[in-house]
Design brief:
Elements: E1 3-7, E2 10-13, E3 18-25, E4 33-39, E5 46-51, E6 57-59, E7 67-72, E8 77-82, E9 91-98, E10 112-113, E11 117-122
Parallel strand pairs: 2-11
Antiparallel strand pairs: 1-3, 3-8, 4-5, 4-9, 5-6, 7-8, 9-10, 9-11
């Protein structure tokens, strides 16, 4: 059974930083792509950052230069370092996994999802 467990969310003031983590277990294949999505109340889920099996990364324009996605293959973990946080970054953050790189446009293309971790940024 594939499990993705997010951690690291919390409440910070504008300009602060948080580091999210997503631990993967139970996945059969040794290599896979990962992504972070977020969803604010009343809004659609949107892609934030993704990292391919080879380590290539892509980011939403709204977070470029502020967020960094990385992976630790030995620990089956992916991280999202979030700096210079803004109130508009407030959302539930979800990690997603797929054997192939699915991009950030269509969340439904990703096969497995975590339960999410809340990030709240106050002004």
């Amino acid at each position: 059974q594939v499990q993705l467990v997010e951690s690291g969310g919390g409440s910070v003031q504008s300009g602060g930083s948080l580091r999210l983590s997503c631990a993967v277990s139970g996945y059969t294949y040794r290599t896979y792509s990962m992504a972070w999505f977020r969803q604010a109340p009343g809004k659609e889920r949107e892609g934030v950052a993704a990292i391919s099996r080879a380590g290539s990364t892509t980011y939403a324009d709204s977070v470029k230069g502020r967020f960094t996605i990385s992976r630790d293959n030995e620990k089956n973990t992916v991280h999202l370092q979030m700096n210079s946080l803004k109130p508009e970054d407030t959302a539930m953050y979800y990690c997603a996994l797929d054997e192939y790189f699915r991009g950030l446009v269509v969340p439904g293309n990703w096969e497995y999802w975590g339960q999410g971790t809340q990030v709240t940024v106050s002004s």
